[in-house]
Amino acid sequence: MARSRIVFSLSLVAAIALVALVVGVVGGRATSSAGQATGAGSGGAASGKKIDVIIKASDSSFWQTMIAGAKQAGGDFGIKVSTFGPTSETNIDEQVQLVENAISRGADGLVIAPNSASALNSAIDRARKAGLRVITVDSRVTTASEGFIGTDNLKAGMQAGKRMCELLKARNRTSGGVMIESSVAGIQSLIDRDAGFKQGLALNCPQVKAVLQRYNNNDINTAASQVNDALTANPDLAGVFADNNTSGVGAARAIQDNKAAGTVPVVAFDSDPQENAALAAGTIDALVVQNPYFFGYQGVLAAGMATVGRIPPRDIDPGAVVADQHNMTEPDVKQLLNPPTMKAE
């Protein structure tokens, strides 16, 4: 199998320019340890600015990686970064309260991975009216912000659909039905991801259809039960697409319990220790890996720019890479699979 390479969006050129500009704006000195990332950089117009970072859920290593990136940026460029998150991706009300808290705390900027495309709109509007500069990451909202940083999920989903087709062809299957195991209904990034997966299948294996979709509310046990039920009820199920790390871990458990590794391929999104272990064991065949560390780091830089009147790029996509057993130990892929993590405060 050809080596998968990390291909970044052309908009990453804007991100590189952003880093160069922020260095001039905040004048912070780089540090080598994420543990020092508490605003220790010196000098510059944005040094000392307060940026609140709100993740989607505190129980996921994916979002803990975003926190690590945000904290590192704070330390590198002298920005005071505080990090928060609800206990679950389904807890939208708690995210709204965290935005309100940022306003009350007098934050200068906000980096948020919203759990809804619209339910955060009023809170974000209030924050911007209060003078906060808002950068959204991972999932878009339908109100205004100063910029967005995140994977093009439609494109990344198409990568997943293409890989599923390759895995099925390797098993001499060119028709049949696959399951989409999803996390939470109504999340735009997941909607785009699932739509892209279907497009990738249609382009490469037109006789393979997504015939079943379930939502697990970001619960591993529920995901495992749903995939197990699907395998039992559909003995000819061709494959499973799991559209986030919780769904991927649950799918891998069901595959293991049904001894279906090698017969029912699983393509999942993101990475965490359990998904990585499943990839090594073969209960997950491929992971479409994002770069949440970049989300956090670049989000803080963009917010820092906006707080001092500079204009950050409107849209930055760091791209995604497909990891499998053949390339998971290569340095660039291994780094994405095993990024640093930090917990919310």
UniProtKB/TrEMBL annotation:
The keyword rRNA-binding does not apply. It is found in: Cell envelope. InterPro entries: Peripla_BP_I, SBP_2_dom. Residues 51-304 form the Periplasmic binding protein domain. The keyword Disulfide bond does not apply. PANTHER family: D-ALLOSE-BINDING PERIPLASMIC PROTEIN-RELATED (PTHR46847). Keywords: Signal. This is Ribose transport system substrate-binding protein. Signal peptide: none annotated. GO terms for molecular function: carbohydrate binding. CDD domains: PBP1_ABC_sugar_binding-like. One of its GO terms (cellular component) is cell envelope. SUPFAM superfamilies: Periplasmic binding protein-like I. It holds the Pfam family Peripla_BP_4. It comes from Nonomuraea jabiensis. Belongs to the bacterial solute-binding protein 2 family.
